[in-house]
Amino acid sequence: MTCNPSWPEIEEHLLVTDELQNRPDLISRVFRAKVEEMKIDILKRNIFGKVAAFVYTIEFQKHGLPHAHFLIILNNEYKLLTPEAYDKFVCAELPESDKNDYLYSLVTKHMMHGPCGSLNPKCPCMKNREYCKFKYPKEFTNHTYKGKNGYPIYRRRNNETKLNDDQRKAYDIILDRIFKNKCGAFFIDGPGGTGKTFLYRALLATVRSKGFVALATATSGVAASILSDGRTAHSHFKFPVDIDEHFSCNISKQSSLASLIRDAKLIVWDEVSMAKKQLIEAFDLLLKDLMDTKTLFGGKVVVFGGDFRQTLPVVRSEKKKDFLRESLLCFEIWNQLEKLRLSINMRARTDPAFSDYLMRIESGKEKLNYQGKIDIPDCFIVPFISEKESLKMLFRITYPDLYTSTCDMSSTNSRVILTTKNDFVDEINDMLITQFFGETRTYVAFDETIETTDQSQYEDFLHTLHPTGLPPYKLTVKINCPVILLWNLNPCEGLCNGTRLICCNFERHVISAKIASGDSKKMHVFIPRIPLLSSQDEKLPIPFKRTQFPIRLCFAN
Asked: Domain DNA helicase Pif1-like DEAD-box helicase spans what residues (predicted)?
């Protein structure tokens, strides 16, 4: 066991001006307490079995931190003599991140060797820059067995994620077009959980590994953040935020961005089902202009992806035909795309019945009752007693430990109440934040009209407005409460519109938070208070600017 300078018991007792190397008393005291606790685990709690004898020594490593070695001899009936016995206490495989995220983060942070070998020939463990003296990477084996010298060879299964049949077929077709310098426009059609993102990552990695340029983009910031070097379509291709029938991309043919797009062998656009057809049309015209050709998408290999069963383009209408009319489905280019379908649900493999049920609903094949509606099984429904009681029951089921100081944040982050309208979202969030454990902090925004002469006349009225995309006038938060980012602050660091965050600390002009999802999960960030303009799509009677933290609560969404 090695002393970890990041142990909370050490960090909490360091003063602001303290340096770790100047507090050997604190280090020794905390390490001693940890060693004594480990001795109790081994000798009294018998975590390995009854101990016949033991000896341990404490040494100091080169960087000055203490390190303990234990030699434990177990009673005969508890000795590890078989591969099955070894597997009970020793595992040389990574924990599953979706089942035990905390253990996974500890192992990957503290117990990973390298990289060495061809990935890093200058690693200190490399002898003559040829091989690792510790013989890493170890060979894969499906079972633990005894080695020739008496040391066990631990189980290391080759459980890396691989493309399934549907993904492999699409992967081969697309790469064939790329490496044969042929044009191609594809649409990857697959419900949520069928591995679209994994396919995109495989395509991007393969093309880039050959030294070619591959661009990753998405309609939403969250979708872009989970792709390698991903950016939103508006950022990549300079689309304006407010679009109409006559807008165009603001890219000069002599610019470095235009040169990058011309060099791209592959362009991946995820969540295209959320994009309005005007964006796709402008994208097509942009590529044709940059490549000086009338071929579809300038002769580039373009891979679109999305699921039209989920969110369609945002349109101010309540009619289904209006949503469809604005989507790619009703654009002439749609018929020119090659459709590649993914049907194997990788996310719901443990519950195929539920996956099939969702597919029947998505495809319109689920049976309807006499009212023309779908009957949802009782196991998925919160019974209606009264509006107040049923909501309380829903809250308890969704957030069972919300009301305690020991609330499990990893569990809270993976849950959300989905509603149909923003008014319901605000109502549920307001109810849950009052029940959330902790002290309340309220931030009041500053609203100002674009025309300064109207400020005094309409200021109170502006406080009552809650436009889509703007934070509330009064933002009420608590430490550890979940919030959602409403603005693309820094997509490269995972701060995109739609990123979920956990509040850590509150200051006057900044909120300290921790990213709760995506590749930047657990990264500490600071959210500033910034001025935000209302969208032209809102058609507000008075255009105005709101200065507030660009977040809102996300117990419900």
From this structure: 162-366
Each residue of 176-210: pLDDT tens digit? 999 999 999 999 988 777 889 999 999 999 999 99
Distance CA 449, CA 543 (A): 6
pLDDT digits (tens, 9 = 90+) for 102-118: 888 888 888 888 888 87
Identify each DSSP E strand in 423-543 by its residue range.
441-444, 446-449, 474-477, 482-485, 500-506, 510-515, 524-528, 530-533
Q: Report the alpha-carbon distance of residue 80 to residue 48 in Å, rounded.
A: 10
Average pLDDT over residues 32-55: 94
CATH-assigned architecture of domain 165-341: 3-Layer(aba) Sandwich (3.40)
For 511, the 3-state DSSP assignment is strand
Q: Are 446 and 546 contacting, i.e. CB atoms less than 8 angstroms apart?
A: yes
Pick the most confident of 192-206, 322-336, 512-526: 192-206
> Which whole number is the average pLDDT over 265-275?
92
- Rounded mean pLDDT of the chain? 85
DSSP 3-state of 107: helix
Distances (CA, A) of 105 to 94, 112, 137: 10, 11, 20
Where do the structural domains in the chain lie, given as residue ranges? 1-79, 165-341, 387-553
d(CA 470, CA 450): 16
- Ordered alpha helix ranges (H), 405-519: 409-413, 422-435, 455-463
User: In DSSP terms, which residues pair with 524 in a beta bridge?
Assistant: 514
Q: CA of 68: how far to CAs of 32, 60, 64, 99, 285, in Å? A: 10, 9, 13, 30, 66
Per-residue CA distances from 305 to 203, 240, 270, 494, 519 (Å): 13, 22, 5, 21, 20
Residue from 80, 79, 55, 77 nearest 68 by CA: 55
Question: Distance between CA atoms of 232 and 269, rounded to whole angstroms?
Answer: 9
Six-digit token string for 462: 């502006």
CB 488 within 8 A of CB 471: no
473, 463 in Cβ contact below 8 A?
yes
Model confidence pLDDT, tens digit, residues 434-485: 888 888 999 999 888 887 776 667 778 888 888 878 899 999 999 988 999 9
As a residue count, the chain comes to 557
pLDDT score at 521: 78
Shortest CA distance to 500 belongs to which of 514, 480, 519, 488? 514
Neighbours of 280 (CB within 10 A): 21
The closest alpha carbon to 217, from 283, 120, 276, 126, belongs to 283
